[in-house]
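Follow-up to my post from last week.
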Amino acid sequence: KGSNEESAPSVSANSIKITDITQDGETLTFAITSQKSSSSAGVCVFRTYEDFDWLQQSLLSQEDVPGLLGVIFPPLPGKPLPSTSFTQAKALKQFGFLALGDEWKIYCKALELYLQQVAAHTTLSKSKALSSFFSSTESPGKHRGKKGIFKRLSHVMEEMRKEGHKDVDKFFQSERDSCTHLSVLFKVSTEKFLDTVLTKQKLAVACGHFSTSLHLVCNHDNPAAVTFSKICLKLSDIIEAVKVNFEKVSDNDVSSMGLALDLESRYQEAKKEMLFRRTCKLVELEAANRNSERAKPNKKAIMEGVQKATQKEFNLISSVAKKEIEQYHRARVSVLRDFLVSWCEKQLSTAQETSALFSQHLEACRGFVV
Amino acid sequence: MKMAASSERSPPPFPESEEQELEPDLEDEDSDEGADIFTGGMLSDVVMDPPLPTSASEPAKDIFSDAPADSFNDPLNKTSAEPEKTESTGLSKAQVVSLVDKAADDEDLFSDPLGESAAAPVTDTKSAPLLDLGEEPPKSDVTEKTASAAVKEDVSAEVHKASQNDVVSKPQKDIFEEPLKGTVKEPATDVFSEPTGGAAAVNKPARADLFGDDDEEDLFKEPLGAVTKKPQVPLFTEEPNDIFTEAKAGSKAPSDLFTEETFTAPSAAAAAKPSVNTGSKTNGLHSDEEDLFAEATVELSLDSPHNDKRKREAAKPSVPASTLSSSASTSKPQPKTLEELEEEENEDKFDLNISVTNPEKVGDGMNAYMAYKVSTQTTLSMFRSKQFVVRRRFSDFLGLYEKLSEKHAQNGYIVPPPPEKSILGMTKVKVGKEDPSSAEFVERRRAALERYLQRVVCHPSLLQDPDVREFLEKEELPRAVGTQALSGAGFLKMINKATDAVSKMTIKMNESDVWFEEKLQEVESEDQQLRKLHAMVDSLVIHRKELSMNTAMFAKSVAMLGSSEDNTALSRALSQLAEVEDRIEQLHQDQASNDFFIFAELLADYIRLLGAVRACFDQRMKAWQRWQDAQNMLQKKRETEAKLLWANKPDKLQQAKDEIVEWEAKVSQYERDFERVSATVRKEVIRYEKEKTRDFKKQIIRYLESLLQSQQQLIKYWEAFLPEAKAIA
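User reply:
Got it. Predicted complex:
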């Protein structure tokens, strides 16, 4: 633990930016710039999704961090699939908001947030893997790290019944209940919000068609119909303005509220996983308790040893988890607040712009002599 | 060539048409609304007519040279022979225009049009005389050659002289000094009513055709509506009436006087015309004075488009000219009245305000029907009171349409179609399901019926129809029967049949007038475009509704998040957000119905109206077909006669000759019919286009207002939410 702190001066979380993205076939490469908190010199590295995955695995499989299982790991978005064979509908189903936006803009934003959260995390920021992720010229993902606890986790996943296991701690029991509940609610809200955004985009497209068709109505041959043509052109402009408004509004939605909801629902999921890991440890501990009670005298000492070790580990996990949860609750409120405020401000300014534009159009329309 | 055509054709139509077409009108409308001061004159006019044309040119010349004496002959020749003179009068006319403008400004007459389009009135009025200049000589030629027609008009003018002088002198008194009036009035009415009558016989229908072609009409109609009794109005409206009359006036009178005479002359002309019209139009829509002015306005507004058109059609002048001149006589009285009405309508829409409200289910089960309250507010004296309410059921509306289309469609009028019957929608209502879709159906139909009635009463000739009045006024209406044919698919089938027939006939018809060919094509492509637009608006509405629904669901899930959230500030903000989203949902919903009721319904109306437009083209084709058939028949009869002559069978020869005479009469009758229908169709299509432009403008403004309002609401909502979001700690 100590060595970690000395060897890796942590990266300043706020300085982490994904500045560019290039696509080469099926592979997306992200340009990531960052600054060490100790110096003002910027570093730029190029990372693929495999590198991100490697980082996440390394974080999950750190062996020298006590109570690691109690950490809420910042959630890494799923693997992007730039393939053309991957339809928009499928991408939306898998990535939700992250599939929206031009050129993976929203996805980059989500990755950026992930890195910032890792770098801001008290324990994870000290990881060697993170520091090499931000500085190594080589692509760290190429040397596949050890299979992390994910493997072990997936094994445990089979025992889903443990999810409903009664907790010994009231705090954790209520956290588990509310987390399960909230995680579902956030997922639903994200889906519903995504629906509204998609409908707005459809409306923008429909307005575009309408506006184009109105252009075609204009009759240039007939001088008597000039006024009517003018009116149609004006209407075409108005519908175009409506279309632009829809585009702006849906962009605002995606880049602030949509991202926030997506992040929050993934975080809820991460928290749930952490709680589940602790529950698994609890189940393990209870088994050890029973074993040591029932153990024959010759094995009693060993069993008690196991029980004590497990108890200690469990207590450590629980205390880390408690801190993590508190930390997370503080962080999420401020993150959600920021997103909500920025969303509201964006919508407000868009509405004001659009309203001004409509006023202009209205004046122009009233000026038509029929 | 044009002139020859018109002079040949003009004489016979007058007695015939006026007797045939005016008298029924008189009977019809007189019985409704009592006598008019001009009725007597009108009738005597008709009685006096027949002898004149029989000896067409002879007596004409007599009167022509006798009555007006030097004052008439001289200027007439001058104007036709000397372009310089014409020009100078044209210039002085410009002066008149400016004079009028000034006066108008003083009176604030122009405040409206000026506001609407900066310098429009001034420039337009000035361009009108300029256009006239070019067209002048031919016009006066026409007058000379259609002397007989002119003479006839003269007679009628003289018949009405007494009343005309009264009317004309009234405005004059206001503007000009007494002595001037005295000197001018006498010769003016005598002399100028004559040529104007002749010219009007030729020009008026032309204008009638082109009516609504120009912005000018708009410019003038407002001030007219504002102050009909102001002296400026007659001045203004008369001045461009006909330059050739002015030319005469200008050439023989001192410069001071000539302006005055200019006014007197056209007003006399105007007076001569309405005297015919008022005879037939006895609804008491206007005072006599207003009639005169409205009349004059119509002429004014039509002057320049007419000339425009002529210039454009310069290459093929004979066709339109003959069409115009002959349809002149036939369609003159009625369209004139209509134009006045239209003027009146345009001037002040509040003259007749119709609303359809309170849809109410009457009865139970499958015999149930919807009844609507039809409220009318009007200042028109053709109605018994200023405000009245009747209850009508849907089939009554359809019945009204049937009656109207039976009477008017064959004459080439665009009869606005009512909304179709909807068996599905009505069944839902009948079953009594109180679901939103049936409420929407009822509201949609109510609005459609209202627009339908408004379109009907906006149409000057339909408003005149006794059935319309009955529909609006009469307490109990006989049950409309046979409207089943109009229901849903049947209705569409009917329209489609009509359009099929049109397209089939178009192939056969060797179109003599490119205008109709082009217009029909325009109408057809417009139909397709509107259908496309309608489909797009439909999908827009569907998406809007979807958005509204999605927003509602999002609002609900945000509300649940808010109630499950532990952090109090966040929970509060989320609950507020849920409320904001709820309101936004309402906005989307409102916007969806705005999209629908403003655009989708507007487009649907116009798709239906286009069906009616096509139908009026169809009527024109039918008239043409009848004329062609008659011509073929005449040809056969002539061949028979030739055969009989050759075979030397004198006994049958007389019968054959009689038949030829009979068919010759039919051919000319049908030709006139065709030309009358053509003229009406032309006018109706132009009117339709104008109404369409006006309608679209109105609806777009309405739509924009709704968009703007919705954005402003949004601003309010977000502004209220922002502090809540910031308060999360």
